[in-house]
Amino acid sequence: MATTLFDLSGKVAVVTGAGANGGIGHAIAVGLAQHGADVAVSDIDEEGVRMTVAEIEALGRRADGILCDISSPQQVEAAFAAVDQSFGRVDILVNVPYAFPSRVHPDELTLDAWHKTLAVSLTGYFLCAQQAIRRMLAQGGGCILNIGSIAGASALGRGNFPYSVAKAGVNQMTKELAVEYAGQGIRVNAILPAQVLTPSFKRAVLGDPRFSEKLTQRLLVGIPLNRLLEPEEFVGPAVFLCSGAAGAVTGVLLPVDGGNLALNAGGNHIWPVD
Ligand SMILES: NC(=O)c1ccc[n+]([C@@H]2O[C@H](COP(=O)([O-])OP(=O)(O)OC[C@H]3O[C@@H](n4cnc5c(N)ncnc54)[C@H](O)[C@@H]3O)[C@@H](O)[C@H]2O)c1
Q1: Residue 16 belongs to a domain
Q2: Tally of domains within the chain
Q3: 98 lines ligand 1 (CB under 6 A)
């Protein structure tokens, strides 16, 4: 008999940053639907939302598109009110969006850029989590999945400063919320990706004229699997963490990073060693 361990039938998932742009949120939204969930597809990209909704409906699942900038408390409140109207419950929240300012050294960073980065990448996650938790408490449970980054666990340099600080905050938010609500049946976990070949990564990192072609080689030295990752590789870990298979898993920061965080800077996966 086939296992139902990873079955999400009957669950309602809210996925922020789920516009169909080839990113991690898009892959996870479709992946959750492939495993049975109905999905509230949220993003600031109207066309992207429309396309993801169509993809999910084509799978025979229910989907609703909700435009929402997660840095706006009013928009987040309205988005969850819309989810109440459409679906009547929230079983799963996946927080995905991020903001990244122009890359400068920390001593050159403007306060405005700092605030804008944290408003989306950290405060936005809190605002969505708070709305979801209020509903999950009333329902008697649920789960939250935050998309963090290896940048929240170890320093990357290269102008990552405010982004990395926000991601470190996401890590601690994950653990604090997990502990606060474990007794009420709400699980909170995070996935920490290494470099993923999404269109925005290709544009913002590989396409940055200040980085030479050597950057990819440098990144690969830090990834024992010896390749950059694909957005679809986040579906399995996300489905696991959002499903009954992970019923005892909360407060976990799961690296999905090809081994990056396991590797000590003095280690090497490339032989012979120069
Ligand atoms: N791509 C990578 O290499 C990589 C590495 C580590 C971590 N991550 C993390 O993974 C997540 C997804 O990254 P990605 O590369 O797939 O990004 P992406 O840019 O492809 O997707 C992010 C989505 O969020 C939406 N968005 C942006 N600002 C928003 C806002 N204020 N409110 C609502 N939606 C908004 C965008 O329209 C987009 O659809 C991010 O949290 C990122 O930090 C990515």
Answers
A1: yes
A2: 1
A3: yes
Range of the domain at 227: 12-258
With a 6 Å cutoff on the Cβ, whether 181 touches ligand 1 is no
- Residue 100, domain CATH: 3.40.50.720
Assigned token pair, 219: 């990144």
The Cα–Cα gap between 23 and 52 comes to 11
The verdict on residue 241 lying in a domain is yes
Lookup: tokens for 217: 């080689």
Cα(41)–Cα(237) distance, rounded to whole angstroms?
Answer: 19
What region, left, alpha or beta, does residue 53 occupy, with left being phi > 0 and alpha being psi -120 to 50 degrees?
A: alpha
The pLDDT profile of the chain, 274 residues, written as one tens digit per residue, is 778 999 999 999 999 999 988 999 999 999 999 999 999 999 999 999 999 999 999 999 999 999 999 999 999 999 999 999 999 999 999 999 999 999 999 999 999 999 999 999 999 999 999 999 999 999 999 999 999 999 999 999 999 999 999 999 999 999 999 999 999 999 999 999 999 999 999 988 888 888 877 888 889 999 999 999 999 999 999 999 999 999 999 999 999 999 999 998 888 888 887 6
Tell how far the Cα of 4 is from the centroid of ligand 1, in angstroms.
30
Find the Cα–Cα–Cα–Cα dihedral 171, 176, 179, 180, rounded to 10°: -140
CA distance 124 to 97: 8
In-domain check, residue 174: yes
Tell me whether residue 269 is in a domain: no
> For residue 106, how far is its CA from the centre of ligand 1 (angstroms)?
22
